[in-house]
């Protein structure tokens, strides 16, 4: 068992596809009125395009690409704050590679690095501690972002910095939370959804319990899914089984990784270091209450927002960019007038074109044209 | 961003900092295993465990029995076609 190839078996995929086709027809769905399923997580969006699942699924299912891509929901003002930190003298800013090309109001981290700021990509937040030890005369700031999957790793990094008594390390915390974002989506009257594919690796940390309100209060089935093609297809099959049987539950397809209670060590680390912000700005979704983490006062010596004076401005999105509508699932990437012309992965205007998990970048990179898009551009 | 890759622990490299060497698709990488250690799983028992690695941390163990059951279900579905 290698936990990868086994979940890419074409024969099993074909069987699942045939089942899905039968069940959607049985459920009375048509190409003009498809079953609308949102995959919340950008990792799922990436897998769906990488393996061409959207192309092989029947017309009776429409996948809506949700806001679960931390890079895509990063507001321009927070990027400007990160660049302001990097522009301080004697600062080394470290971050994950995903964040390097996110456009701020004036430039990206990559462009700031090109004009002289000391900005370094790291594989793990722990690498920042080594950089801090190697550069005792510099302040090393980790630009932390990501959902609950990533937050435990940055929390453990701060706990280790504390244990080692590091004086020249801090973090600019931009961690966001899945559940408040889902709540905001569900309360959006524009959004028409039948069900959710739930995020696999966030659930590995938080468990499956926090999603129950979606099934109980909003009557939407949710299936927590893995990231291989068979995982996603099986999750769709499980959603259809629920709908046909008149059930509305939270189910776990990814039980080889996700336990109902989550990971207690990770949750404890997260809750020790972080507390919930009153509100946090999400690109395209605006301010969402209780949707982000900040560093607790006990660890203020590691909080870049305490150590540095920041512009702290909210910056409106680019006028031509419609990432907000795409993140809410009410618009498709190719319906944006700058998609693939003024806005490309090499020169992104909007964040959905930056990360490989963003819907626009996924459509652009894998050359997917849905049947609607084919019609729009005159391809038969 | 939430990318996770399965890997197998081959060696405990630093007990104090809870670090282990993990074989990820043939690449050896040192990762932090704090999130998978508890009283039921002391650090010395982790060798050969399959874990999911995310940003340099092992975030959870992979459950072989659950994976096998999922694959068996899909196999039966394919046979029933």
TrEMBL record, chain A:
Gene3D superfamilies xrefs = 6.10.20.100, HypD, alpha/beta domain 1
- Family matches, as InterPro entries: Hyd_form_HypD, HypD_1, HypD_2_sf
Membrane-traversing stretches:
none
Q: Does the keyword Metal-binding apply?
A: yes
The record, for Pfam families, names:
HypD
The biological process GO terms on file are: protein maturation
**Top-level division of the source organism's lineage:** Bacteria
Signal peptide residue numbers = none
Keyword annotations? Iron, Metal-binding
GO MF annotation list: 4 iron, 4 sulfur cluster binding; carbon monoxide binding; iron ion binding
Note the coiled coil stretches, chain numbering. Answer: none
Family of this protein = Belongs to the HypD family.
Task: Fetch the NCBIfam families from UniProt.
Answer: hypD
Name of the protein in its database record: Hydrogenase expression/formation protein HypD
Q: Which organism is it from?
A: Coleofasciculus chthonoplastes PCC 7420
TrEMBL record, chain B:
What family does the entry list? Belongs to the HupF/HypC family.
Q: Name one GO molecular function term.
A: iron ion binding
Question: What organism is recorded for this protein?
Answer: Coleofasciculus chthonoplastes PCC 7420
What does UniProt list as this organism's lineage?
Bacteria, Bacillati, Cyanobacteriota, Cyanophyceae, Coleofasciculales
Family annotation (Pfam families):
HupF_HypC
Q: What is this protein called?
A: Hydrogenase assembly chaperone HypC/HupF
Gene3D superfamilies listed in its UniProt record: 2.30.30.140
- Could you give a single Gene Ontology term from the biological process aspect? protein maturation
């Amino acid at each position: 068992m290698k936990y990868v190839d086994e979940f890419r078996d074409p024969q099993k995929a074909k069987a699942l596809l045939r089942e899905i086709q039968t069940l959607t027809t049985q459920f009375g769905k048509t190409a003009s009125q498809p079953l609308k399923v949102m995959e919340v997580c950008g990792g799922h969006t990436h897998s769906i395009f990488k393996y061409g699942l959207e192309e092989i699924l029947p017309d009776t299912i429409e996948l809506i690409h949700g806001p679960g891509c931390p890079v895509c929901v990063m507001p321009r003002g927070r990027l400007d704050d990160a660049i302001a930190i990097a522009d301080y003298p004697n600062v080394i800013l470290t971050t994950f590679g995903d964040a390097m090309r996110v456009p701020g109001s004036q430039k990206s981290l990559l462009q700031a690095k090109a004009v002289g700021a000391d900005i370094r990509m790291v594989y793990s937040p722990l690498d920042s501690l080594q950089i801090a030890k190697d550069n005792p005369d510099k302040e090393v700031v980790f630009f932390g972002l990501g959902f609950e999957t990533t937050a435990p790793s940055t929390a453990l990094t701060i706990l280790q910095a504390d244990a080692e008594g590091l004086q020249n390390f801090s973090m600019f915390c931009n961690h966001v939370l899945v559940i408040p974002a889902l709540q905001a989506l569900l309360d959006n009257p524009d959004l028409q959804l039948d069900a959710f594919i739930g995020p696999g690796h966030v659930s590995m940390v938080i468990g499956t319990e926090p999603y129950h309100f979606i099934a109980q209060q909003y009557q939407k089935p949710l299936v927590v899914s893995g990231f291989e093609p068979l995982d996603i297809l099986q999750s769709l099959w499980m959603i259809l089984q629920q709908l046909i049987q008149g059930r509305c539950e939270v189910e776990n397809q990814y039980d080889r990784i996700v336990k109902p209670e989550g990971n207690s060590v990770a949750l404890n680390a997260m809750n020790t270091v972080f507390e919930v912000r009153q509100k946090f700005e999400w690109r395209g979704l605006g301010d969402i209450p209780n949707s982000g983490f900040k560093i607790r006062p006990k660890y203020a010596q590691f909080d870049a927002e305490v150590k540095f004076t920041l512009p702290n401005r909210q910056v409106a999105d680019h006028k031509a960019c419609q990432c907000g509508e795409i993140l809410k699932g009410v618009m498709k990437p190719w319906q944006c007038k700058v998609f693939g012309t003024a806005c490309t992965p090499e020169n992104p205007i909007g964040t959905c074109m930056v990360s490989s998990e963003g819907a626009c970048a996924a459509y652009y990179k894998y050359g997917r044209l849905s049947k609607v898009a084919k019609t729009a551009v005159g391809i038969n | 961003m939430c990318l996770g890759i399965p890997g197998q622990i081959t060696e405990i490299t630093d007990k104090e900092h809870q670090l282990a060497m993990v074989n990820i698709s043939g690449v050896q990488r040192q990762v932090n295993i704090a999130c998978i250690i508890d009283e039921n799983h002391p650090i010395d028992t982790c060798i050969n465990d399959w874990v999911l690695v995310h940003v340099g941390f092992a975030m959870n163990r992979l459950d072989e029995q659950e994976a096998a059951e999922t694959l068996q279900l899909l196999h039966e579905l394919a046979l029933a076609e």
